Amino acid sequence: MVSKQKAVIEHELLDDYEVGDFFIETPKRTILGKGIFMHVPAGEPHQNQMEGLTERVAGALKKAKEQGHPRPIVTGAVPFDNYRKPCLHVPESIQIVPSLQQEEREVSSSAPVTVNRLVSIPSPERYKQGVMQGIERIRSGELDKIVLSRSLEVSLNKPIDLPKLLRNLAYQNKHGYTFAASIEYGNQKISLIGASPELLVSRRGMYAIANPLAGSRPRSEDPVENQRRKEELLSSPKDLYEHAVVVEAVVKGLRPLLKTIEVPEKPSVVYTETMMHLSTVIKGELLNADISSLDLAIALQPTPAVCGAPTEKARQAIAEIEPFDRGFFTGTIGWCDAEGDGEWVVTIRCAEANGDSLRLFAGAGVVSESKPEEELAETGAKFQTMLRAMGIHTEQLKDI
Q: Which contiguous run of DSSP H or E holds residue 98?
């Protein structure tokens, strides 16, 4: 009986989602925010938008409460580039219910979708050249790691059914973080939607959890081959090094904010519908109660899992090698309440949707032992999360 009641709640939340709403489902809860009660003010133009962001968020939450909001929380997305404005606001209404990820759920069968146009930016060949540039910078000692990404620009024969896409992502994404939010580029509003496997950081009371992922393999439908790939991943010097760089950076970012910190000696493996990843769950107790979930997120974002190391040198190299603007891809999306509790997710396995057009993103971590053709294949495998949810089959797409 409890399961059926929960299913009704979940059904209603997903049925209530409309384009422009904030939605996130995590292993613990599902949140739907509708309308805008108050925007979080941006920082000064041409300034680092992360400076003073937590104070602006706290001010918006306080002001919303003073103006009669019964349960103010801030929701939205923070971009990869610290100088681009975040899209954060207090929704007019908030619904929060327990997560139903472990319930049996059926993905909707999608009507046939025709891909009218598909462009990879950069081209697969140019992406491999970019990976070689990254490897050369690593071998010269300039970088320890760099994450290089590409995008797929897809035009369909009809407008994208975002509520159905969100439902399919949520139903397929049994252990991760499914999200949708409205973002802005100038005066244009578009939808950011995705199913990330990676928690940047969460805070509940005096305790924080971060769960960096780095080092990946595509999943196979053959259980024997899947096991072989898992064992290969757990013993791969290249992937273990890539993962260790990320864990070290996360620990370094969190340590000044934590009284205690727990870090497992070895990573484990987590699965998505299409990938397997090396995973480390880092836990700790906050130094004081004034440190919010957003404080923790800003201390970590971007991690080497989506940028590289050292961070600023990697970020500069990305700007020089990648021929497109990441926007909110590899930023963070989530929520924070007036007590400082919240969850922030790494914005990957995502797309920007507008009408009949979709821009997908995928990246791969590059270290000195990387091979360009393998990194290209990894980005292609990561695109499948969104493509499958849309009902676009691989055979429709050539050379992605």
A: strand 93-98
Distances (CA, A) of 83 to 45, 95, 188: 8, 32, 18
The runs of H, that is alpha helices, within the chain are 2-16, 53-66, 124-139, 162-172, 223-235, 237-254, 293-300, 311-321, 372-390
Give the tokens for residue 226. 């899947």
Going by C-alpha positions, the residue among 341, 337, 350, 346 that lies closest to residue 91 is 337
Q: Could you give the CA distance from residue 148 to residue 398 in angstroms, rounded to a whole number?
A: 21
Cα torsion 241, 208, 307, 195: sign: positive
β pairing state of 258-262 and 282-286 = antiparallel
Give the β-pairing of 73-78 and 332-337: antiparallel
- The SS3 of residue 152 is strand
Q: Which two tokens stand for residue 59?
A: 């001010």
β-strand pairing of 145-156 with 115-121: antiparallel
Strand pairing category for 87-90 and 38-39: antiparallel
- Would you call 145 a catalytic residue per the annotation? yes
Give me the amino acid identity at 150: R
Catalytic residue among 10, 25, 145, 382: 145
Task: Determine contact, residues 275/217, Cβ cutoff 8 Å.
Answer: yes
To the nearest whole number, what is the mean pLDDT of the chain?
A: 92
Q: What's the rounded Cα separation, in Å, for the pair 15 and 8? A: 10
Q: What is the pLDDT of residues 31-45, one digit of tens each?
A: 999 999 999 999 998
| CA contacts within 13 A on the Cβ side of 159 | 7
In one-letter notation, the amino acid at residue 53 is L
pLDDT exceeds cutoff 50 at 2? no
Choosing from 198, 273, 322, 375, the catalytic residue is 198
Give the confidence band of 106 by pLDDT, cuts at 50, 70, 90: low
Look at residue 385 in the predicted model and tell me its pLDDT: 87
